[in-house]
Design goal:
By secondary structure, the chain is of the alpha+beta class. 34% of the residues lie in helices and 18% in strands. The protein contains five helices and seven strands. The chain has a three-stranded antiparallel beta sheet with strand order 5-6-7. The protein is globular, with a radius of gyration of 17 Å.
Length: 181
């Protein structure tokens, strides 16, 4: 109902401002992830990073700086940053998404520090996601079969949902990354 009230066109515009670059059809089903073709984990991490940065979107960069052996800066990239959302909207979204980890389907993503995120599981357990962020890092995890839509009802004896392997992978990755930052 909310997407009908807001308008699917406006939702698509906001998604693009936040970092989703794939084509998204403006239909009500996008509220539940109903896409003809999905988005990439990089796009999801980029979009969730916008929430982490109080509504500011920074284009993803693979290399931020290159130094010589002596420490001389040989290359430094400048991030392209735009204000995609009102900071208050990003704050409220973060407040809600923290609950996913503290008391919802993403409990396996808990890292003992402030974090927010969202689980996602498609029909018949064919794709599973966890996308989340801390104040300093955004990361998205997708689990599935890239070559086909195959059910994941018995992977190492478990049914794969966004709150299972993806949330666990996210937690391990983010915990390790914070240790090395």
């Amino acid at each position: 109902q909310l997407i009908m009230d807001v308008g699917a066109d406006r939702v698509v515009e906001t998604a693009h401002r936040m970092g989703i670059s794939s084509e998204v059809m403006p239909v009500p089903a996008i509220a539940l992830g109903g896409l003809d073709q999905g988005v990439t984990p990089l796009e999801m991490a980029s979009a969730y990073g916008t929430l982490a940065a109080a509504g500011s979107h920074a284009e993803p960069l693979a290399i931020t700086q290159v130094r010589s052996a002596s420490g001389e800066v040989l290359f430094e990239s400048e991030p392209v940053v735009t204000q995609a959302l009102d900071p208050a909207v990003a704050y409220l979204a973060t407040d809600m998404l923290q609950g996913v980890i503290t008391r919802g389907t993403g409990k396996a993503a808990a890292i003992g520090r402030p974090a927010a995120g969202k689980t996602g599981t498609t029909q018949e357990y064919r794709d599973a996601w966890f996308a989340g962020y801390t104040p300093a890092l955004s990361c998205a995890v997708w689990v599935g079969y890239p070559e086909e839509q195959r059910e994941m009802k018995d992977v190492h004896g478990r049914t794969v949902t966004g709150g299972s392997f993806p949330a666990e992978i996210w937690s391990s990755s983010v915990s390790y990354t914070h240790l090395t930052l």
